[in-house]
Amino acid sequence: MSNEEPSLTAPLRESEPSVDERAGPSRLVEFRQDEEGNWVAVMSCGHTQHLRHQPPWQNRAWVLDPERRRQMLGRPFPCGWCLKAEETADRRRSAPKQQPKED
């Protein structure tokens, strides 16, 4: 069992494109560490994402360097939660409308 914090710092509705009033991609606004010392990115959309450097699976050596983390602040960073919400909304919009059954 993991004591890891949830990856969302904002309410779930925050990810819904219909409610989201921000323009453009998410940006990195802050870094913090979880209780295990792993780096967590806080994005402008309010969501968070763990950024681990675990070669060969995850190659993010820059998260270990304070200066390189500072240089990343303000840069666009794709939010997986927001992208998933957009994909879900796209699927709902493109799904054929079901006609009510007549008895």
Account of the 3D structure:
The protein has 103 residues and is of the alpha+beta class. It has one domain (12-87). The chain is 21% helix and 15% strand. It has two helices and three strands. A three-stranded antiparallel β-sheet has the order 1-2-3, with no helix packed on it. β2 and β3 form a beta hairpin. It is elongated and about 65 Å long. The model is unreliable at 10-22 (pLDDT under 50).
The gist of it:
The protein is 21% helix and 15% strand. It has 103 residues and is α+β, with helices and mostly antiparallel strands. It has one domain (12-87).
**Total helix count?**
2
Distance between the termini: 51 Å
**What is the count of distinct domains?**
1
Main beta sheet: strand number and arrangement? 3 strands, antiparallel
Question: How much β-strand is present in the residues?
Answer: 5-15%
Widest beta sheet: strand line-up: 1-2-3
The beta-strand count equals 3
Secondary structure topology:
Blueprint: E1 28-33, E2 39-43, E3 48-51, H1 66-72, H2 80-94
Give keywords.
single chain, 103 residues, alpha+beta, 3-stranded antiparallel beta sheet, 3 strands, elongated
